[in-house]
Amino acid sequence: MLGKKLVTAQKRGETRALCLGLGMVACSMMMYFFIGITIVPFYTQSVWTAETVCKVLKANIKDKVLSPNSKGSEDEDIFPYPCLQVWVNVTASGQEVMLYQTEDTLERNSKCSYVPGKSENSKEVKARIETIASNFKTHQTFPCYYDPGGTQTNVIFSRLYPPKGLLFAFLWPTLMFSGGCLIIVLVKISQYVSILSAWQ
Q: Which regions span the lipid bilayer (predicted)?
């Protein structure tokens, strides 16, 4: 009687462990799919892949800058935040170009080097932009990224998803997938050893 209970408890434990392993594998596959449709396209579509050295030429803050969609209007589509414009000299090409924070900054507003988040209030945004401008004036030489193909003449300060960031994004689902497979293998080994012991 006791032996049957032990066998039943062992089978339940193996079933739960097997379900856990399969669940971990399924979750890791979903994470791979999510990363593949969100992060990977941004990484592959980015043309700013080569690193160089940029030297700040000027960093200006404009309180009122018209939207790129405006057509000559001076009153409509004015940004509610100060517009920081940073111009740099690129060592790789020797050109004077505009610096953007990331690839996303250029798409959101091509006239400003920095675009604040929507949830920030105006005082925090103004203080942050002034701090960024002063940092650029203090540290005038820094690494930046440019387009080696020449399709984009401007440069960016940092990439949204650098190679290390992409590897880090794939690290967690890989660990989960490996852990799930390890659990499944251990359960199968345990079942095989149990059958072999019973047979003997």
A: 20-43, 166-187
Same domain, yes or no, for 10 and 100? no
Ramachandran angles phi, psi of 23, nearest 5°: -65, -40
Give the CA dihedral 135, 137, 141, 142, nearest 10 degrees: 30
What b/e string do you get for 135-151 counting C-beta neighbours within 10 Å, with b at 16 or more? Answer: ebeeeeeeebbbbeeee
Q: What angle do CA 179, 183, 189 make, to 5 degrees?
A: 140
Q: Is 42 exposed, middle or buried (0-12, 13-18, 19+ CB in 10 A)?
A: middle
Same domain, 79 and 151: yes
Q: Check whether residue 55 and residue 151 sit in a common domain.
A: yes
* 152 and 190 housed in the same domain: no
Do 176 and 90 reside in the same domain of the chain?
no
Tell me: do 70 and 117 sit in the same domain. Answer: yes
Q: What is the number of domains present in the chain?
A: 2
Tokens (6 digits) for 103: 């690839």
% of residues, the chain, pLDDT over 70: 84
pLDDT digits (tens, 9 = 90+) for 176-199: 999 999 999 998 888 888 777 767
Q: Is the pTM of this model over 0.90?
A: no
Q: What is the pLDDT of residue 4?
A: 53
Q: What is the pLDDT of residues 129-149, one digit of tens each?
A: 889 999 998 888 999 999 988
Residues 24 and 56 placed together within one structural domain of the fold? no
